[in-house]
Amino acid sequence: MGNHEEDAIRRQINAIAEAIGAKDLESLEQVYAADVVSYDIEPPLQHLGIEAKLKNWAHVFLVFERATYEVRDLSLVLGDDLALGYAFARLSGTLKNGTATNGMWVRVTYGFRKTDGAWLITHDHVSVPLDIQSGNGVVDLEP
Question: Per the count of CB atoms within 10 A, which of 4, 37, 40, 100 is most buried?
Answer without folding.
Answer: 40
